[in-house]
Write a structure and sequence with these properties.
Elements (H helix, E strand, L loop, with lengths): L9 H21 L1 E4 L2 E4 L6 H17 L5 E2 L5 E2 L5 H10 L1 H18 L6 H13 L11 H23 L10 H24 L2 H23 L1
Antiparallel strand pairs: 1-2, 3-4
């Protein structure tokens, strides 16, 4: 079913990813509605502050992903909380904007370490794995549950990818699902623990909550305007 994608060259895939990312950004930036002949910006439109923060968080996560504390033999590595900037952005600004920022970050991850077997593997390892970090935006009063939501979603994506596409790396006699469970559980679990430990630092914890409260207040003020 997905054999048609096997002929795609790496440059072509990268170009497609860039085009998709640019199109999504353009869509959310310029989507507007007209009411009574007057153009009104939708609530979903990004502010300059949100765009700047998203760019900084994507850049911070991307740079941190190059710092590898430990590299696993068959892909994946432990980094100094490279997911935390994306998780924090999603927690502060919500799921929808976090999803788009995470999608852009996932495409950058593919450019950094491209590995393409089939489109479902690409979607699980790069698109969904990082865009679903946006589930951190569902947390209400603390970033800690949000980190668990986002990391849990990433683990599920990578577990499925490992089980379906990388089962050949499992030791002889070990089921592919069990190998993927242990392998990806170790990578994502340690990364998640690092993110929780850093975000639990009192100054950062209070900062994240204050920024989220400010965002909620601004949205309420916008809704009442």
């Amino acid at each position: 079913m997905f054999d048609d994608f096997s002929g795609l060259t790496l440059p072509a895939i990268i170009i497609v990813c860039v085009i998709i990312a640019a199109g999504l950004i353009g869509y959310f930036l310029y989507r507007k509605k007209t009411a009574g002949g007057k153009e009104i910006t939708k609530k979903s439109q990004w502010t300059t502050k949100e765009l700047t923060t998203a760019a900084l968080c994507i850049g911070a996560s991307f740079l941190l992903s190059f710092i590898k504390i430990f590299s696993m033999p068959n892909g994946g590595s432990i980094t100094p909380a490279s997911m935390l900037p994306m998780l924090a952005f999603s927690y502060i600004y919500g799921f929808k904007k976090g999803f788009l920022a995470g999608l852009c970050y996932g495409l950058l991850q593919f450019v950094q370490e491209p590995f393409f077997l089939a489109f479902p593997q690409f979607a699980l390892d790069y698109l969904l794995s990082f865009s679903l970090l946006a589930l951190a935006g569902l947390a209400k009063k603390s970033i800690i549950p949000g980190i668990l939501y986002g990391c849990g979603a990433r683990f599920i994506c990578q577990f499925l990818s490992g089980w379906i596409f990388f089962g050949m790396y499992a030791p002889e006699g070990m089921p592919a699902w069990l190998y993927s469970l242990g392998y990806n559980g170790a990578v994502v679990g340690v990364e998640c623990a690092i993110c929780i430990a850093i975000s639990a630092i009192p100054a950062l914890y209070k900062l994240f909550n204050r920024l989220k409260a400010q965002t909620i207040s601004q949205r309420k003020a916008f809704a009442q305007a």
